[in-house]
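retry 2 of 3: previous attempt timed out while embedding zinc ion. Reduced batch size to 1 and resubmitted. Inputs unchanged:
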Amino acid sequence: MRAPLETLTDRLARTRDAVRAAGVDAMLLTPSPDLRYLLGVAATSHERLTCLVLPADGDPALVVPRLERPGLDGTPVAELGLQVADWTDADDPYRLVADLLPGRLGRVALGDAMPASHVLRLRDALPDGEQVLASPVLRELRMRKDTAEIEALAEAAATIDRVHARMGEWLAPGRTEAAAGAGITAGIVEEGHTEAAFVIVGSGPHGASPHHDVSDRVLARGDVVVVDIGGPTAAGYHSDCTRTYTIGEPGADDVAATYAVLQAAQDAAVAAVRPGATAAQVDAAAREPITEAGFGDHFIHRTGHGIGLEVHEEPYMMGGNDLVLEPGMAFSVEPGIYLPGRWGARIEDIVVVTADGVRRLNNRPRALTALPA
Ligand code: ZN
Ligand code: ZN
Ligand code: ZN
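retry 2 succeeded.
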């Protein structure tokens, strides 16, 4: 599902307001999630410059290599009424950007992940402009998801929920994490994502490493297995969901009680999500029951991260972040307990702040799930 044209028009207008409010004279964005957010297309042009030029005063324009221009046909760019300025390999595209801007520039905001090859040439072409990051301008917009984005995230979450529902096809004794991961990767695409962005299968002691990948470790009866998976939809919005499984009954006798602490912590953190609560309060709500039960030192990461066109984006649910939650903010709630050398567990759902509380986008059962051994 693509963002409606009115939504994109509105985002561009609000971005210009934000550019002005930030005291920036122009914002320049090359292909990135920021550009996709504003134009609805995942433009790429490799080493050649594609650049959205957003002056504080004046109309936005898109600089594109001429050979990429046909690729814009049928995209919202045509309908948005943007001026498109194309260039050939004999032209200087950085000069073209400068010509689209007023002569005297104070601050110029550049997309955070713009390649240095463009940053330095833009600095040469705009010698008066002080280069600053675009994220302080854009974060306020991108953090608050509009209706089209929330529906895209809900579609992504439903897709990854269907993959978790099939986990018994892939996790079985005698199979390696890598073999299970290959099956899961295929399943993520079969269920509707365009690709698997990441597949973590952390079995036994590997589950105690939150960002484990997959390995040649062979799954065995009694293993606890952390499965953290996600991918993008065609519109570019991501899923990210963790469930913890056991191969048959858990082999260690502390698994059930420890997992119960984790599940209570995840529930408490989700229950703390509402407009007016702070990100730090959500983190504390997850951390308190875990600390109370004596596992505080084994919950070794923040409680959650924002999600959208990027898997990790603002807002971050962590101690010290006094950001006040508002309707439309979407993020993960993913406490974990990690016992080095033994096993680990994590429960992760994507949630959205609503007008009066919270909506969970992932809805698979959260209890420890025993698969046939
Ligand atoms: Zn992570
Ligand atoms: Zn995850
Ligand atoms: Zn996550």
